[in-house]
Amino acid sequence: MERMVILDRRKKYLAGNENIPQEVSDFLKNEVERIKSEECCYEEVGKDIEKLKKFYEDTLILAKSYRTSKGEHEKSSEILKLIEERLSAGQKYFYNKTCKEHTNWWVWEIDIPMLLNDIFVLTGEDISCELMKEVIESSKYFQPDPRYSGNNEGAIYSGKIALRFSTAEHRAETVKISLIRGILTDNKEEIVLALQSLVEAWAYKDDSYSLDRNGFYRDGSFLHHGSIPYTAKYGNIILKEIGEILHLVRKTEYEKYLIGLKNFYEIIFTSFEPFFFKGGFTDMLNGRGIGNFENHDHKTGHEILNSLLLIEQDAPEEFKERIAELVKSEVEKDGFYKYFENEKSPYFYNMMKELLEKNIETKKYQDRLVICNKMNRIMRRAENYAVGIAMHSSLIGNYETRDGENKNGWFTGDGAYYLYDNDLEQYKDYWKNADYNYIPGTTEIRMNMENVDAERNPETRPLDRKNAAGLKWHYYGAAGMEYENWNEKLTSRKSWFFVSWGVIFAESNIKGKGEVYTTVANRKFKTLPEIKIDGEIFNVEEIKIKAENVEMDGKIFMFYKKTEINLKIEKKDDCLFVKIWVEHGKDPVNSSLVWGLVMNKGDMTLSEIKEKFAVTITEDKHTVKGIKCDYQINWDFKIQVQPFCVIYRKEDNRESRMYLNNY
Question: What whole-number distance in Å separates Cα of residue 334 and Cα of residue 331?
Fold first, then answer.
């Protein structure tokens, strides 16, 4: 009986129940017609990894259409026959126990087994039992054990035995594969082993002696591939897979095999919630996903909110209300990426409608600063804006490119800032159109970067003893980064000070070979906003001028001294970019720059801000004297036994300090 309950839950999750939105029905109808009309050469599918993946994704669409209540193809013998034909072809030509993996192991070991499981859930008792048994055996060959990725048949992957311990999102994926396969085949032993293995997906890495660094940390960090912040992509997958697993086994005999769930619910509020802004989820945690032009911060946010919506259904009371409030708040604040216009799952479509109708009070954002030193990321969020800082160090990579993705992400972790405000469309198609040579907040050498692999991480061209870290008190904070660029021809000392009105950017000791420049802004617009330079309206396409501030779209870029800036408007097909940058000249030896991003100046004038938040830069220290706090970044920390970051709190005459080991 419980087996049937679990399978029924999965069917409803995949295909909905009675109330199927018209948009979903139309989508399935159009997709089925497309699949039926396309010629498929089975002998060729297995040679191309993208065709292979698409083949099984399309087969799942057919299965959803077959199962969808009151749909045009519900229980259609024609569709069932086509599904069986495709699965038989796969078994014969390109997905069986004699096939060798190529191109991307994940498609063979994770993606296809997941798709096959769901195809069999949806077709249920109607599909050939013999065919299902054969295909599942092939699936089990490629992914036999929830604790590992790969198989133990001696296959070789990247020069190593394919069987390897699964961590982070791969653990959540391998567990879900074994769980659903165990339900389909009524294999209780496989089900229990899967659920007992799940804790690895959310266990804090701070508590582990393993050299593997993939996973969550207590400060809100999440790492993948050892040194890349990846909450928006692989952390997102963990939420999705675990949400589905919890949904399947809740209130069944199998629920007791899940342990350590409190950690998982806490992670929602340390590693996910702080990085939302009005429905979007920051791109600075998207790893090489930045280079995926089909994705953007609001699409990622939508996916994460769906996972949280599912998790909320089965969460314990102490977390249930908080999760519901988070989901409802972000959906209602998102005035750009309309939830119901973009949701294609009838299950989530209807469940979100129910949630939004509930009497749950949503609140404004409270001023908050989150510092995640384990992944060199900082997020400052206020009511009307959020700004993220992406750093790198000897422990965290500057960026990642793989499989042709994010080839131009060279500078996206070089102290870049990611600004979110009421222009919610800012990052839609941003990475598709932006000039990657001008990433806001970065200092670089001007050169042709096309086709350059500039990756630096602990395994690829590691940095030598370079640190990046920060310290906070309430929503005030300070952070510093010992910066060395990808080819070791540029170094500097970068710091950020998070104050009541925005962020102060300070950079000194800039030494480089070549033409060095700092990008202050690179904003995308549909239509050109009014731009003022020192109060005068700017009305040409390009200018080089000495200025103290630039006002644009409700924000002010304020320089602490009169600085020669470059401002340029670049038009694209359906948008335009406004770039602001500062030249440091050729082969600078000891250049510096201090400026502020003013988001909420209140009653203060810019002169008063500079006076009340005075900045001092020396070779050894960056210091800010503020109203509530004084801040300091101490670059001598390696030589002297001193803290790296200090915040002096004036209200209680005490200091918060952060020390780094001299290693």
Answer: 5
pLDDT digits (tens, 9 = 90+) for 511-566: 999 999 999 999 999 999 999 999 999 989 999 999 999 999 999 999 999 999 99
Q: For 386-403, what is each residue's pLDDT tens digit? A: 999 999 999 999 999 987
For residue 487, how many other CB atoms are within 10 A of its CB? 14
The 3-state secondary structure of 53-111, one letter per residue: HHHHHHHHHHHHHHHCCCCCCCCCHHHHHHHHHHHHHHHHHCCCCCCCCCCCHHHHHHH
* Kind plus residue range of the DSSP H or E element containing 32: helix 22-37
Tokens 């910066």 belong to residue: 483
Q: What is the CA radius of gyration of the chain?
A: 27
* Rounded-to-10 torsion of CA 287, 293, 294, 298: 60
Residue 115 to residues 75, 82, 120, Cα–Cα distance (Å): 19, 16, 9
Tell me which amino acid residue 618 is: T
* Identity of the amino acid at 302: H
Distances (CA, A) of 503 to 274, 378, 647: 18, 12, 15
Residue 613 in tokens = 């938040």
* CA-wise closest residue to 278 among 213, 237, 192, 338: 338
Spell 617-654 as b/e; 16+ CB within 10 A means b.
Answer: beeebbbbbbeebbbbbbbebbeeeebbbbbbeeeeee
Whole-angstrom Cα distance, residue 283 to residue 296?
Answer: 7
Closest CA to 87 of 55, 64, 111: 55
- Strand ranges (DSSP E) for 373-514? 377-381, 386-390, 416-420, 443-445, 468-473, 476-484, 490-499, 502-512
